[in-house]
Amino acid sequence: MWKLHRYYLRELVINFGITFLVMFAVVLVSLVTRGINRSQGGGLLDAALITVLWTLDSFPHLLTITFLLATVLTYARAAQDRELIAIRAAGIGPRVPMMPALLVGIVLSIGASFANHYVLPEVHYMKYRVIADVARNVFTNLKLGSDRILIPGTGFVMTCAERQGSDFLDCTVYCPGDRRIQGVSSPIVRVDRISIPPVGEHSESVDIVLSGFRDPIPSPFAQASSEEFKIQLDPHGIADRGRRPDRDDDVRSDQLLGEVMREVHPFPEAATYTLLRRCGFSLMPVLLAPIGYCIAELMRHRGRVLALSVSLLPLVLFYFGEAIGARVLHSTQSPWSALIPLLLLVVFGVPLCWRQLRR
After folding, report:
1. What confidence tier does 134 reach under pLDDT thresholds 50, 70, 90?
2. pLDDT at position 245, please?
3. Is the pLDDT of residue 146 over 50?
4. Cα distance between residue 174 and residue 171, in whole Å
5. Which of 131, 185, 238, 341 could form a disulfide with 136 if both were Cys (CB 3.0 to 4.6 A apart)?
6. 131 and 39 in contact (C-beta within 8 Å)?
7. Residue 64 contacts by C-beta under 8 Å, 6 or more apart in sequence?
């Protein structure tokens, strides 16, 4: 029996590894644009790290989908080659070739449980904070990456012809209303240099310095002022606009459970829902192992493509249950709605496995 187990175990692990790497690469490439957009205020390495963290955050979904596809591929190939029929003809029950899938599912469920409860909350928290909130939000709210920069609290709008690091050269500043630069009567001011220093997480102020300002109307006697005009801003006041609050997805399960049991969590039903949802994703590989085997054996005369197509049905049911469970939680405040996806999967899988394994 061990030779039979080892034979399917090796093939299943190889198929799972290849499928997981391919789907991980697909998700990684699809999130490059999001990583670049989220890295405003940072560099290339920040964009790459954000992209990787966003991809890792999809680990529960990748694990669920790739394991089911790998299981169906492995046993659909065995069914088409008449291996499963030969095993049955030798008097060996169908549970014996299914056992490698169940063993891999158990191992993956244990790993997924640790990842979902302890690792992925940290990843989910870090993917929004590769760049400090203050620095990123100041960069975004001031629109330092565009050609039109709005200075909050003053109403000033500036454009520049050239940029060198934190210095903006040959700038034009619009000063609306009665907010004028001292010594300049026009609401439009030409400025030789505007310095906006980089903002760190612990910065107490942002000092914007305008050097060499003058009226925009050219005059043979007009000279740029040698004085400096300084604008001081509070970076935390700028950064707090659009700041993302912490959520249950950012908190590890032990801490979340402790807050619920101590009755200090503001929304205990939502926290319990999050805990049960993580448990549901952790159990998915164990539940999908027999379902994948039975689908592959059921489709033995119809080819692997049809077997893979039918394998999408339990995934559709699971994610349909995810959507329904979130709506039920919103309507009834019952955290047990997190188990609806598992219930739908059991309703689909029990008759299928009962029929195939007892046939």
Report:
1. very low
2. 58
3. yes
4. 10
5. 131
6. yes
7. 281, 284, 285, 288, 315, 318
Whole-number percent of the chain with pLDDT over 70: 73
**83 exposed, middle or buried (CB, 10 Å; 0-12, 13-18, 19+)?**
middle
Is the distance from CB of 183 to CB of 167 less than 8 angstroms?
no
Return the exposure string of 169-178: e unless at least 16 CB atoms fall within 10 Å of the residue's CB, then b. Answer: eebebebeee
Closest to 118 (Cα-Cα) out of 281, 251, 245, 246:
251
CB 136 within 8 A of CB 55: no
Q: Mean pLDDT across the stretch 277-299? A: 91
Residue type, 14: I
Single-letter code of the amino acid located at 66 = T
Cα–Cα dist 188/321, whole Å: 59
Most confident of 140-149, 164-173, 232-241, 335-344: 335-344
Instruction: Give residue-wise pLDDT tens across range 21-70.
Output: 999 999 999 988 887 777 765 667 778 888 888 899 899 999 999 999 99
Radius of gyration of the chain (CA): 30
Q: How far apart are CA 120 and CA 58, in angstroms?
A: 9
Residue 303 in contact with residue 80, Cβ under 8 Å? yes
CA dist., res. 176 & res. 156, Å (int) = 7
Predicted confidence band of residue 183 (pLDDT cuts 50, 70, 90): low
To the nearest whole number, what is the mean pLDDT of the chain? 79
> In sequence order, what DSSP letters do the residues of 154-214 get, joined into one string?
TTEEEEEEEEETTEEEEEEEE--TT---TT--SSEEEEEEEE-----TT---EEEEEEEEE
Alpha-carbon span 10 to 15, nearest angstrom: 9
Give me 305's structure tokens: 């493509």
Q: What is the DSSP string of 318-350?
A: HHHHHHHHHHHHHHH--GGGGGHHHHHHHHHHH
